[in-house]
Amino acid sequence: MIFLNEIELIEEFENENIDIKLVYEDSIDSTNSYAKRRSDEFKDKDVIFIAGEQTRGRGRRTRIWDSPKDTGIWLSLLFAS
Q1: How far apart are CA 59 and CA 42, in angstroms?
Q2: Predicted TM-score (pTM) of this structure
Q3: Across the beta sheet with 74-78, what order do the strands follow?
Q4: For 69, which DSSP code?
Q5: Chain centroid to CA 52: how far?
């Protein structure tokens, strides 16, 4: 299995000329909650929030989302308004 780190992910996006901001954190509570907290910061930009792990991840209908470190891709998308 190959793991990409934050720098490699950003470089891949830049190499492909993808006009989406990438925000990576090693560990956060929930990518959805994090995206909501930072939404004002990125009003005019599409953003992908990625985490190495979520300590309190949640899915639809407030379902708990188990997301241990380095076992998957934990992300949320925020589209410009």
Answers
A1: 22
A2: 0.77
A3: 21-28, 47-54, 74-78
A4: T
A5: 9
